[in-house]
Amino acid sequence: MTARKRVEVAAAVISRADGSFLLGQRAPGTFYPGYWEFPGGKVEPGEDARAALVRELDEELGIRAAACWPWLVREFDYEHAHVRLNFFEVPEWTGEINDHVHSALSWQRADALTVDPMLPANAPVLKALRLPRRMGVTQASSVGVAAQLAQLEGALAGGLRLVQVREPQLATAERETLVREALARCRAAGALLVVNGDEALARRCGADGVHLPARALEGLGARPDFEWVGASCHTRAELLAAAALGADYALLGHIAATPSHPGAAPLGWTGFEALTTGLPMPVLAIGGLGRADLATARAAGAHGIASIRDAWEGDAR
Known about the structure:
The protein is α/β, with parallel strands linked by helices. It has two domains: 6-130, Nucleoside Triphosphate Pyrophosphohydrolase (Alpha-Beta Complex); 134-312, Aldolase class I (TIM Barrel, Alpha-Beta Barrel). The protein has helices at residues 49-61, 123-130, 140-143, 145-157, 172-189, 199-205, 214-217, 236-245, 268-276, 294-299; strands at residues 6-14, 21-25, 36-37, 40-42, 64-77, 82-94, 104-108, 134-137, 162-165, 192-196, 209-212, 228-233, 249-253, 283-286, 304-307. Strand 11, helix 7 and strand 12 form a beta-alpha-beta unit.
């Protein structure tokens, strides 16, 4: 039996400040002609994926990637080959985009796609691009429910679009009140809300998803039936378990020293990169981080950051 052909590919999410990204339409005479894809191409022998992407963007689009950040890795079985796609984020480049290989180019947004069909491998990638870059984790058990809701209103007004309600110390009724009140505010702002650890509460309140603690990953036989499923992770094994479950994202930390983990050694960005290399889902960094750390986090391969205190302090933009 002939071994299935394996192809290593580097692909770019070339993005603008408004959140739009570039897609190219495959030309006649190629596999899947007319389908839309992220720019990129094959990794040649002796190349690493980043070098291949820099070369491909120069050859295909005439641009030089000024920033090329690892993001996620997806695998897909096409009729002609098993393809491993190494996705990088390219938010900065030099030169004018001048396409040499596609039938057309189009700037798109993941929440309002206007072109089709997309290459089959890209559905999870488009969903990952819908995930906001910053998550606020609630602290109502410390500040009180009323104060937390007031902080939430300010953060939503400032642009926060992803909220995790994590309140194990609150009484059940008080926690449900918080979820319902917070969800109403998130809905009005177009933000997502996930509930930590309590699937029944999340379902009862109509939350957008559930966020699983690491200890829950091993006992789950199937992915919870929510639009968004996330997981808190601290080790490579936990990240792989979250990926195997089909989680849409993971949190990994703690990155920096934080009062919530006194005496515990932080991962740092080198440790974060080592644990997240090659994962198929986006990972948000957590632990002692604020808005000023977002670019550093993304350069280290994070999709974004999650924070407890910083998310609710002042202007959340």
